[in-house]
Every structure is written in structure tokens, then in C-alpha cells.
Amino acid sequence: MSRWLLGRVAQALATLVLVTVLLFFLMRLAPGDPLGQLTEERQYTPDQLATLRRLYQMDQPVSRQFVNWAGALLHGNLGPSFSFHRPVTALIAERLPATLLLGGTVLVINFTLGLWLGALQAARRGTPIDRGLTTLSLAGFAMPSFWLALMLAWLVAIRWRLLPAAGMENPLLEPDAGAWTRGLDVLGHLILPAATLVIVSIAVTMRYQRRAMLEVLPLPYIVAARAKGLSEGAVRRRHAWRNALFPVLTLVGLWLPILATGSVFVEAVFAWPGLGSLAAEAIGRRDYPLLMGTGMLVSALVIGGGLLTDVAYAVLDPRVRWS
Amino acid sequence: MPSLKSGLAVAIVALAGAAPLAGQSHARDVLVIVTGQQATMPIPTFMEGPANLTANADVADQLFLRLAELPKDLITTDERRFVPALAKSWTRRDSLTLVFDLDPRARWHDGRPVTAQDVVFTFQRARNPEIAPKLAGLLKHVTGVTAEGERRVVFRFDRVYAEQFYDATFNVEPIPAHLVPAAATVASPPVAFVQHPIGDGPYRWVRSVPGQFIELEANPEFSLGAPKIKRLFFRTAPETDTRINLLLSGEADATDNISTPLANVARVSAVPELRILPLPSPQLGYLLFNQRDRADRSKPHPILSDVNVRRAIALGLDRYAIVRAVFGQYAEVPYGPASQVLGIRRGSPKPAGRDTAQARRLLTKAGWFDHDGDGVLDRDGRPLELALNFPLTSEIRKQISLQVQEQLRPLGIRIDPVRLEGPVWIERRSRGDFDIDFSSATQDPTPSGLTQSWSCQGGTNVARYCDPVVDSLLDRAIAMPTGSAPLWQEILRRIEASQPAIFIYAPSFIYVVSRRFSNVVIRPESSWLLVRQWSIR
Description:
Largest sheet of chain B: 12 strands, mixed
Oligomer: heterodimer
Helix content of chain A: over 70%
Low-confidence stretches of chain B: 1-5, 16-23
Low-confidence stretches of chain A: none
Largest sheet of chain A: none
Distance between the termini of chain A: 8 Å
């Protein structure tokens, strides 16, 4: 088992290194650069741009830039962001909590409510409850997230004035406000973006779970459990539901990168200060160091998500071999 | 399985707990301005390159003080009309020497007095092209800045020109010499100072919450009088819709530009607590014709090097209809490259309207006919077909590009709008790889900035427009201490006549401010500069 695991981790690390190198060079091959951006509204002359390129060491060959960047990376330094003028690691560290809070909330709601509803649908297959939930969840899935976000903001924040329209904290909160007040404030700001993301994504979890349950329910061991005289609820909870969780594991792995990047559109509409909006800004401004930082983080999560799913399968499912 | 009932209960409790925090009414003496970007380096002489952002300038204008401020009418050539700020007075020793006497009450936020040495230090940095390339270009005629004692600063210039005073006062605010390393640049800034800038302006730095807001507090020791609004927030919301939502929900008091669509303006107008203030903006949108072949820059452009074709395209467009459709009443059709903040536009004639008959005559004169009857003119086998590049982030330019395409189609001119990602669009523009570029410029209040794009050697003249007569007129107009207005008019007239571009729109910025505030003054050259004079009803 440990040999298999080591091999899998080594494979994941090699993939991450490869992706990082590709990212570095492909980014620089793409048209546009962070300083070229300056020529739009506030115009710079070629001489002025040349000076800036020198200041930012962008006048060096790409191979030299890579060596410098990789050398700094080995010391845990991702370099300074061109557009924020601060270390990329600090920027990511600042934005990560907001992203994890939003992504984590959505993940937890998705995989509790979504699994429960999916199981309920399977148990009530073909009934009005099943059809109603299918219709509702697919309607949510079909809605563009930015549109839904705008509608919720209009209704809840502007019409009803129940919750804040945007941001993560109220700037007017007194500096000496207690932890409880601050926590409630953040919770108030979290509800609308989290609700938007749950509404547009929960259908996937529900459909996965429903289908998995429907595949499990006719199996002989379920029939045997019923024959033992167990109640229908106990059969579903203890026997069917547990085994129907395996396909959903794949979904969890796929969700991990979303946890970190959030939804760019929803973050934008609610001015949520997460990594998604930071990454989008980095792309728009061709902020190479920041792009590398966020790109590496997403790659690590995608690769890590796949690895975790494989390991989880191997641990939980005796039919999967450690080889 | 988790219980739906318990989940709902948690949600209701959360909602109930959070509800009192929503739409919290503003405390007295607080102003929340919502903007599209967060300031990252609001420090003069560091706002270069990627830090050259309006968001930085807006915050810097609260933290730091210029020697003098522009007059209300934005006339940049008459030093008697400027408003004293850090300098309480000024005199001329001769036509090349300006002397400023600093206000003795001026103090840095750490309590130390602002001295002539601080001004000298700032200008040494600003004039060094290795530290501040953009500023150094703007200050190229300043040959020396020296201190005479603690309170007197002497500026020397290499030539006589009308905007010496403007150059000495507008481009950069002094920074504290005792806190900033002399050689620090935007690429290697002083971390402690950037995280907590110390200025001499009406507001002091309190904190920055990344991605969310910057908080400033009134400086009770401010030399021109303590501001009435005690706390000032710059909130960040990149999306226009979000900024409007924050205004409508009462979580913000003001914003700098409600951009089109016009429905946005209508949404805000419907709220009685908010008022709309359209003001002249420094922006200018124009279709820039490439004068050189995009494939081989040594050759003239096969179609657009002909002035008759350029004129015909201009006459084929109803710019007034375009501007009305996109901006409503909130923009003008400019005459020449002059945004609403440039004083030289006063007295300009009305830009030409659509004249398709004349456009057809010019095209015929230039040898363009529809030989094959496909609806597109051609000459020597080449169709009159032009790509129009614009950035995909600009909805305004997209809308106008489609209207341009439709309006020119009946004339037999095929326009192909090409929507490009921002960096790609800029790279093609810089390389001269375009037929028509939908440009947007933000102009300084001084007309001398026109040399950059509209003179033969202009550093940002990507279309290679060149008229030696215009160059000569620019030189003379810039050098004249007074009475240069007719020369500027002639420059605009010549540029309009040779049609290197079609100047489509000069918009107003549509500001929104809560009616809680009185004495509201917004300046075109720096939106929130005079917040220090605002008060609360």
C-alpha cells in the first residue's frame, strides 16, 4: 500500500512540476504583457516602457527569468505581484480565508443537503416529490450564476434590505466590535454568495446521489436486508446510502479546485474578496507572478483532488486494489 | 442522513442574526465612496507603470497636497488663477524661474514640518527617468529644483512656455524625505511606507482591507482646515452593477462613474436619496486610422493612407446619432482630439454631420467602385474592407463598432469588428497591426499632451500620423505664454481636416452622491480632491 501511495504522490508531484513549467512559458508566449497594458488609457512611450521593463527585470531572456523565478520558488518566494506591488504569497494568504469560507460553506451545504435530497428522490422515485425536486434543481442549474446573483442582491439586499449587497465585512463596524458581532457580520455577507452558488450547483450532487441510490436499491444485499425485517429507513440509511456514496467521492475530488478558486462571476457580483477575483484580475493584467501563484495553487488542488479521490476509493472500497 | 428540518432552522437563525447588519444606516461624519479598483500604491513618484491607476491618484489626493491646485475653469496657462495649497504664495524671478513659499502650518501626519527639502527631494525623484519614467517625461523642461531656507523652493526651466506653473504644481505632490528611500522605485517600494503612507493632506491613513476597502480619517492638523467629514472609505467593487447595488442598498454614499447602459442611470435616478452629477471627463473615444501598412510598416496603408477615404468614412457616420444612442445626454461629439476637460475646445466649430452624398463623391474620386456588384467597393481587385479592433471588455466600443459597421455598409465599405482580449488588443495597437483601432484616451488637463499622439515624433503615435504643420503649430502654441488659443484652434482644425481619426465621443462622467452631503464639489481632474470641503446636512 505504501509503495502504491508513494508512487501516486510522486506522479502527482511530477505532474505539478510539469504543469508549472508549462504555465510559466505558455504565459509568456501569449500575446500581451503586464507593462504593455499601460499603453491603453494612460499612454507610455516606448522609452518609458523600456525603463519599466528594466525595473521589473522583464528585459531579460525568458530562460533567465525562469531560472530566477524557480530559484526564488525553492525558497518559498513567488515574487512580487506587478499590479499589487506585494509578495504573491502574502496576497494569496490574504484572499485564501475568504475563498475557503465561501467554497467550504457551499461544499458543506452541497454535500449534506444535496446528498440528502438525492437520496430522498431515489426513495420516492417517480412521485411528485421526485419530479418537483428534479425540476427545481435543474432550474437552478440552468440559471446563469451572475444573473441569479444579481436577482438575489436586488431582492434581498435592495428591496427587503435584509442582507448586505456586497463585500465581506461592513467597513463601518467599529474597530472595537466583538468577535460575535464580527462573525455575524461576515455571516450576513456570506449568505447571498453562498446561496447563489448552492442553487446553481446542488443539482449535480442530487443527480449523482439519486442515480447511485437507484443503482444500489435493487441489489440482492438490499433485498436480503429487507428480508431480515429491517425497516425501510434503516435499509436505506445503513445499507443503500453508504454504498451509494462512492460515485459522489469523484465529485468531491472535482470540487476541491472550485473550493479554492470560487466562482469568478459570483465573487465579482458580490465583491467577495476571494482568490477567484484575484486570479481573474491577474489574467486581465497579465500579472505573471500572481498568475503563476494562483495557477500553481489551482493545479495543486486539481492534482491533489484526483489523488485524494483515488486514495479514498482504495481505502473505502475493498474491490479497488492497491496497485 | 442530515435532517432538512435542522438545516432550515440553522439557515433561519443565521438570517435572523445577520439581518440587523444589512443596510446599516451610515454614522454621521462618514463618507463611503465605492470605486472599481482598490488603490495599491497611492504614493506620488511611485504611481508609475502598473501603479499608474486612477484609484491610486484618488487616494493620494487625500493623503498628499500639491503646491497649488488647478483653477475652477481648468485653465492651465495662467498661474495667477491657481489656488494656493502647500505653497501659500509664489513669485517669478524671471521668465525661467518660479519661486514658491511654503505654508508654515503644513505638517506631515507624523507631526514633522513640511520643508523645502521635501519638495526638492520629491522632484529629484520625479525627474529621474530611472525612478519615475512617466513623470520625468512630463517634467522634461524643469532643469532644477532647489531650496532656499526651510520654506522657499525655486524651480528653473529650460525654456519659456505657458505651462511652467502647471508642470511645477499639478504632476506630483511632495512626499516626506525622511521616510522614503531616495532610490526606491515602483518595482522595489518601501514596504512600511506603502503599508502606512504618511502625507500632509486632509486625510490620514488608517487601514487597508485587501480587496474590500481603504479607510482614512480626517487630519485635524490639516494646514487648510480640518475636513468636516471625519471618516472616509474607498470601497472596492469591480462590477458596475455591484457599485449601483451598494448605492441603492444604502451601503455606499457616492461613486465616480455610472457607465452605460443608460438603464443604470435610470435605476439610480429613481432613488430620491441619491443625486446624479454629470461632469466633464478627460476621456476621448476615437477610431484611429492606421497610416502605415499593418504588414509592412515601411509602406503606406493601402486604403487608409488616402485622405479622401478617411474623410469619406467620417462623413459616412452619423456621430451624433451614435452618441445619443449610447450615452444619451451624457456625451458630446468632440471637434478634434479634445476631451471635455481641455480648455482649448472652447470656440471650436460643430463637428461635421453625416453627408453620404459627399462621402460617395470622395470614394469615387479615390477610385473606389463596386465593379463586381457584391455591395462592397473595390479598387484594383482589392475590396474596401477594414478590420476595426476593440477590446472585449468595452461594451461601449462594441456597441459603437456595430453601429459603425451598419452605417458604412450602404456606402460599400465593409467594416469587420474584431473583439480582442485586452492585452492582445494593446499589443496589436502598439505594433501598428491594425486597420482601424477603437482607441480611448484619458487626457491630462493640459493641451500639450496632444504632442504624444498627434505629432510626427509623438511617443504614442502608433498610427504614424504626421503633419509637419501641426508639429510646428504645437511647438508655437506650447511656447506662447499667453494668447495661444487661436493656434490651438488651428491645430484642432488641421487635425479634423486631415482626419487621422474620427473623434466619436467625449463623455461626461456620471457621478452619484447621496443627498446627505452638502457643499459637494467634484473636480474633473481629480474626482474626490475637494471632499475635504464637503459637509453633512
